[in-house]
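Supplementary Methods S3. Complex input for the coenzyme A-bound model.
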Amino acid sequence: MPNQIYSERLTFTKLAEHDWELVRSIYSNQTLMQHIGATMTEEAIRLHFEKELAPWSLASTHWLTWIIRENASGNDVGFISMCTRNREILTAEIGFIFLDAYKGKGYATEAVKHMIDFATKTYGFKKFTAVCSEEHAASRRVLEKVGMKLDKIVPDSTEINGKMVTDCFYSLEVS
Ligand SMILES: CC(C)(COP(=O)(O)OP(=O)(O)OC[C@H]1O[C@@H](n2cnc3c(N)ncnc32)[C@H](O)[C@@H]1OP(=O)(O)O)[C@@H](O)C(=O)NCCC(=O)NCCS
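Predicted complex, serialized as structure tokens:
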């Protein structure tokens, strides 16, 4: 597996120990996490981080995470992760977080498209899924722009900071 891949404006590098501070700051940022889940303690973030540093294969149960940097500046813009969910129809769930300073540039759309293309060609995934809260319009728009379709809306699906939220489940089958 390559350690680095590139799209037109972005570089994706596999998560490494030196990314700890970026990951810690993202998972403890209340604004970024508002539609994803409660902000985590540093200890919980570290546990999660260490799991993701482990070598990844299709049989892994942990997420394969890529740190995304802007080609033009070299700055960190966020990350994208995928996790195998089904091995009969080889399926990956995709998740992503972008820093506020880089929103609205089409980066999330570019990154998700690129990851779907890469994961299809490299690992043979046949299907991709993603989940986001119903009220998270920007994320839903990203999923729609990459061609995902809305399969179901599930009320009271996730608890975020003491409030039950409705989730939207999206998927895309690739041929
Ligand atoms: C959601 C997120 C990924 C969007 O990233 P981004 O790089 O700004 O996304 P893009 O620029 O590729 O596309 C965003 C789209 O949403 C639209 N959008 C943004 N805010 C919106 C809003 N409040 N209502 C409706 N549409 C909105 C944009 O106009 C754009 O669509 P368009 O190209 O048709 O104009 C980013 O804000 C983020 O990481 N947020 C925090 C973490 C998170 O919630 N991750 C997703 C978990 S499911």
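The CA atoms of residues 90 and 125 lie 5 Å apart. The mean pLDDT is 96.
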